[in-house]
Design a protein that fits this description.
34% of the residues lie in helices and 17% in strands. It has a six-stranded parallel β-sheet with strand order 3-2-1-4-5-6, sandwiched between helices. It is α/β, with parallel strands linked by helices.
Length: 180
């Protein structure tokens, strides 16, 4: 059986939070990635939500400086595609789509379609067999819709645990779990 796999970008493929931290740490008190323990961490650091999202969007303008979350993403996404259709499914402002597509090309990411939604939890309404994501909010929505969830481990999703969530630290782990 061929699977339809929804693969997230920010926090799963692209470590955009690293780029944001470099920017943020120049203009406010220093924050480390490990201190970002909640999805809405900006509240804890008294950062305006709209400022945070605007800054994150701005980071994508320098797309070629955004690091990948791990080495060998190209190989891992190619291996994922052996199980079926891999689509990039991302929540973002449309203004960053071209930057993200350039980043995906730069890192030789294998995918068939690029799907952008306005808000992350909306992904759960899409017709996919497996979702690979780092958002705890999205993971909860996927579970509510009885979808298969591979939660890419990040400091902001460590509080999420459910027997129906497969936690992964690398995309290669997703490949191994899909073999079973």
């Amino acid at each position: 059986m061929k699977l339809k796999i929804a693969l997230d970008v920010d926090g799963v493929l692209a470590d955009v939070i690293e780029s944001w931290l470099i920017y943020s740490n120049k203009i406010r008190c220093s924050i480390s990635k490990e201190e970002i323990t909640n999805w809405d961490f900006w509240k804890k650091f008294k950062i305006n939500r709209y400022d945070f999202y605007e800054e994150l969007t701005s980071c994508w303008k320098n797309w070629d400086s955004i690091p990948p979350t791990e080495n060998s993403l190209s190989i891992a996404t190619q291996n994922l595609s052996n199980f079926g259709q891999v689509d990039i499914v991302t929540a973002r402002e449309l203004s960053t789509d071209s930057f993200v597509k350039n980043w995906l090309k730069l890192h030789d990411i294998t995918y068939q379609n690029y799907v952008s939604v306005i808000d992350g939890p909306m992904k759960a309404d899409l017709d996919y067999d497996v979702f690979i994501d780092d958002s705890p909010l999205n993971a909860i929505k996927f579970l509510e819709r009885k979808k298969n969830v591979f939660l890419y481990s990040q400091p902001w999703n460590q509080h999420i645990s459910d027997q129906n969530i497969y936690r992964i630290s690398t995309l290669s782990e997703a490949v191994e779990k899909l073999k079973l």
